[in-house]
Amino acid sequence: MRDALIQEAGTEEAYALFLDFDGTLVDIVERPDAVVVDPDLPDVLRRLQERLGGALAIVSGRPVSFLDHHLKPYSFDMAGLHGLEQRVAGDLHLCDPDEHPQLRRMIGRLKDAVADKAGVLIEDKGCSVAIHWRLAPQEKDFALSTAHAAVEALGNEYRLQHGKAVAEILPSAAGKGKVIESFLHALPYKGRRPIFVGDDLTDENGFKTVNARGGLSVRIGAGETIAKVRLGTPADLRHCLSTWASDGSFPFNVDK
């Protein structure tokens, strides 16, 4: 695994940049609703978007509405809910929870199942649901067995996505690798070398897609990964992005 380096690159428009949100642009927090965004981040992303000719997108498990709220006043290209929601060049497609009646019923059952488990949280995202146990690590086995049982009951149309102290139930068609591939067929992303920055198991299939296209995959933090470059923390990434946005200093070593 190589360390990330700062080096000059004069061809910003050759790249398409895809960025995860939680654990990548912002620090992981104990509760999913307690996220804190650096006040400079939206402006940094906006300047970098302009430098990249528009080819910058947020690729996250969060809903687009949540991301928009935390990155206002700007409306960036986005893939929310692992690609179930997308916005490219202002064209927004949202997921309709009413199209997932089985999942909606299951979310009610999950809330009942964890009602007496302090610290186990159900995050209802509309078209997916996440079970968090960061506040109750002793309940990991319970949370995982509950999630696996729910997916088994839902059938092949849904799958389980593991993450850091979280398991998410989402439609089988969703995935960060798939949505990055989709973006790369649309302007202004088409024909560019992709870069994807993430921090978790949910990002590994995105790394796989980017690597297969000869792009650059960047992992934030520790853990096994197929990413080609590693950075330490979200703060390190924010510094790199700020430098790139300000003076064009490309933040990753791509020569080796």
From TrEMBL:
Domain of life: Bacteria
EC number: 3.1.3.12
Catalytic activity field: alpha,alpha-trehalose 6-phosphate + H2O = alpha,alpha-trehalose + phosphate
Pathway: Glycan biosynthesis; trehalose biosynthesis
Record GO biological process: trehalose biosynthetic process
Cofactor: Mg(2+)
Top EC class for this record: hydrolase
GO terms for MF: metal ion binding; trehalose-phosphatase activity
Keywords of this entry: Hydrolase, Magnesium, Metal-binding
Pfam families associated with the record: Trehalose_PPase (PF02358)
Reported function: Removes the phosphate from trehalose 6-phosphate to produce free trehalose.
Family: Belongs to the trehalose phosphatase family.
Name of the protein this chain belongs to: Trehalose 6-phosphate phosphatase
Gene source species: Microvirga guangxiensis
Taxon lineage: Bacteria, Pseudomonadati, Pseudomonadota, Alphaproteobacteria, Hyphomicrobiales
